[in-house]
Design goal:
Helix 2 packs across helix 3 and helix 5 packs across helix 8. The chain is α/β, with parallel strands linked by helices. It is globular. It has a single domain, classed as Rossmann fold (3-Layer(aba) Sandwich). Helix 10 links the parallel strand 7 and strand 8. The two termini are 32 Å apart. It contains 12 helices and 8 strands. 42% of the residues are buried. It comes from Falsibacillus albus. This is Alpha/beta hydrolase. Keywords: Hydrolase. It holds the Pfam family Hydrolase_4. GO terms for molecular function: hydrolase activity.
Length: 278
């Protein structure tokens, strides 16, 4: 078991930042994908629990965290998924256990749809689902030269603390470290230009018909009090994903890796080691 080595690699026209926690005694690889407006920071409490048994790789999805924010990159789910696929191929990863939180869950589903042979098992933590493509007036507005200033204003208006309060059920967990960890990626203006392109490129979540075709074993873990992606979405995904199981964590909100890392770890270990979806 070793500490993380933060690295960057150029993939699909973007600099991809990742943290790798090597484990010399296992070939089992876990790849972590975070949610919207987040980064590898959101897994800071889960990683120490799982790196004892697995080779862990946590990725900053572009344009978030320390990954590139190129104004030329296409920030669609499909292209971000393709970028992660190319990364895994470059690293010679096979039979990966892929974990996605919130938006990262939808990216994970796109990867499973496109390259199912790469993914042995999937774990979706409060995954986004069934959201539609950005409406055309918003897409049209994103072409205005100063639209990224509006995006910055909108995020600043809601405030870091208010946003965190919306994603955790137990607000006593909120401290200065947490607030700065989620604020830090937004201290430079280039993120807002990239977010403008993300609004423009967002193609919507996978449809029921496409979800029905994903046969990878998938464990769904949901917070009982999730205000961002309600439990009803998890129940719907459970119905539409043919090889899935749903677990609901009591007294938990949207940010399950922060709120209940021990419980997530226990369910994760049982799923990966035993694999039973009963």
């Amino acid at each position: 078991m070793t500490s993380a080595a933060g690295k960057q690699v150029s993939i699909n026209g973007i600099d991809l930042y990742y943290e790798e926690y090597n484990h010399d005694n296992t070939k089992q690889i876990i790849v972590l994908l975070h949610g919207f407006l987040s980064s590898t920071f959101s897994y800071r409490r889960l990683i120490p629990l799982i790196q004892q048994d697995f080779h862990v790789v946590s990725i900053d999805l572009p344009p978030f965290g320390r990954s590139g924010k190129s104004p030329a990159f296409v920030y669609s789910y499909q292209n971000i998924a393709r970028t992660i696929i190319e990364f895994m191929e470059k690293m010679n990863y096979e039979k990966v256990s892929l974990i996605g939180h919130s938006m990262g869950g939808q990216i994970a589903l796109n990867i499973m749809k496109e390259r199912p042979e790469l993914i042995e098992k999937g774990v979706l933590l409060c995954s986004s689902g069934y959201l539609k493509k950005s409406k055309w007036p918003l897409v049209f507005s994103s072409y205005f030269p100063f639209f990224h200033h509006y995006v910055k204003y909108w995020l600043a208006k809601s405030g870091v603390r208010r946003n965190i309060e919306n994603v955790v059920h137990n607000r006593s967990l909120i401290d200065e470290e947490m607030m700065y960890g989620y604020l830090r990626p937004f201290l430079e203006d280039d993120i807002f230009i990239a977010l403008t392109r993300m609004i423009r490129h967002r193609e919507g979540d996978l449809t029921k018909n496409l979800l029905n075709k994903i046969h990878t074993p998938i464990l769904l873990i949901w917070g009982e009090h999730d205000k961002v992606v309600p439990l009803a979405v998890g129940e719907r995904l459970y119905h539409d994903l043919p090889n899935s199981k749903l677990i609901v964590l009591k007294e938990t909100g949207h940010l399950v890796p922060e709120e209940k890392p021990e419980e997530v770890k226990n369910h994760l270990f049982d799923f990966i080691h035993n694999g039973a979806l009963v």
